[in-house]
Design goal:
Helix content: 25-40%
Structural class: alpha+beta
Strand order of the largest sheet: 2-1-9-8-5
CATH topology of the largest domain: ATP Synthase, domain 1
Number of strands: 10
Number of helices: 2
CATH architecture of the largest domain: Sandwich
Radius of gyration: 16 Å
Distance between the termini: 36 Å
Largest sheet: 5 strands, mixed
Strand content: 35-45%
CATH superfamily of the largest domain: F0F1 ATP synthase delta/epsilon subunit, N-terminal
Number of domains: 2
CATH class of the largest domain: Mainly Beta
Length: 142
């Protein structure tokens, strides 16, 4: 059970659990806009778009995760992020994200490509979100 001023957070993907622990605040890229979740938040269920999930711990630490989409379920004492794909921000590969972005842009230009336009746009959104998080982390650490 979480402490009175914390909320239990689970970040999971098909590959397994990425994070489990207490938080004082959670920020996530909901489909209709970014949301912030504090302890005792009203119940909520929303789809997630590709982007950053930020967890503020009771120790004052900020943990960053990349999600490639999925869903978030919020209960008063628990937040569950069910991500299509999820990575710790420190594990993001800038070269791979740049390559994925370039492949998606080329697929959008090439109408004879085997990849559909919707798939290319989704890949472009994931790559752009990864690159945005990498740039943000550089500023935070810089």
């Amino acid at each position: 059970m979480a402490e009175p001023h914390t909320i239990q957070v689970e970040v999971v993907s098909a590959e397994g659990e990425i994070f489990s622990g207490s938080a004082t605040m959670v920020f996530a890229p909901a489909s209709q806009g970014d949301i912030g979740v504090a302890p005792r938040h009203a119940p909520l269920l929303s789809m997630l778009k590709p982007g950053e999930v930020r967890v503020e711990t009771p120790a004052g630490e900020e943990l960053f995760f990349f999600v490639g989409g999925g869903a978030i379920e919020v209960q008063p004492h628990r937040v569950t992020v069910l991500a299509d794909t999820a990575l710790r921000a420190k594990d993001l590969d800038e070269a791979a994200a740049l390559a994925a972005k370039q492949r998606a842009e080329e697929a959008l230009k090439d109408r004879s490509s085997h990849i559909s336009q919707a798939e290319a746009l989704a890949e472009l959104a994931r790559a752009a979100a990864q690159l945005k998080l990498i740039a943000k982390l550089r500023k935070v650490r810089g």
